[in-house]
Fold this sequence. Notes:
With 207 residues, this protein is mostly helical. It folds into two domains: 2-78, Glutaredoxin; 87-193, Glutathione S-transferase Yfyf (Class Pi), Chain A, domain 2 (Up-down Bundle), CATH 1.20.1050. It is built from eight helices and four strands. It has helices at residues 10-21, 37-41, 63-71, 87-114, 120-142, 155-170, 181-192, 194-198; strands at residues 2-4, 27-29, 51-53, 59-61. Strands 2-1-3-4 form a four-stranded mixed beta sheet, with helices on one face. It is globular and about 50 Å long. Glutathione binds at residues 9, 11, 33, 47-50, 62-64, 99, 106.
Amino acid sequence: MILIGQYDSSFVRRVGIALRIYELPFEHRPWSVFSDGERVRAFNPLMRVPALVLDDGDVLVDSHSILDYLDGLVAPGRRLFPQEEPERRRAIKVAALATGLADKGVSLFYETRLHQPISEAWAGRLRSQIDATLTALEHSRALSDSPWFGERIGHGDIAAACAWRHLSEAHPGLIDPENYPSLSAHCQHMEGLPVFQDISQPFIPPA
Length: 207
Ligand SMILES: N[C@@H](CCC(=O)N[C@@H](CS)C(=O)NCC(=O)O)C(=O)O
């Protein structure tokens, strides 16, 4: 398998971390959606990352779809979503909120860095969506011990930490960790894990 995209994308990173935890061998092509846009488009008409090229040449896009496929490659007991309800739906909800949060962070970056003039109404809406979602994740995280669900980390834990890192680096000063103490501690802990240190890249703004 070939994973396309840079690890400064929280979406690419969550897929890379899952591939590593699942011990699935893959090649990594750290292409930028801007400077390598046409190379990315050859694999994904959306010109978006992540894209995962399978061994038969088929290409999966969108981190959730990719992880759904990868989960099917491993035994149920190793999957990174809990298999029992209600933990499963709760973890799926956390992952969805975290990836939605990352989407808002990406949109805010594009609005403030790539769009002239900046729409303050749109940027303000994005900031309020980011704050409300961080608050919801904080409440959820504060209710759980470590890890968030079950006995080991899962897609929800990973997605939240990847989104936090991207937001912090793409929007310095936007997040005040003191407002989200449980979430902040969670993300710090995750970043200390070997797999997070290995599958990582500081944020590189598009040229
Ligand atoms: N919902 C998608 C979001 C992927 C996404 O927004 N990727 C960004 C990089 S962080 C991208 O490729 N942006 C380029 C563009 O949309 O033009 C997923 O979960 O994979």
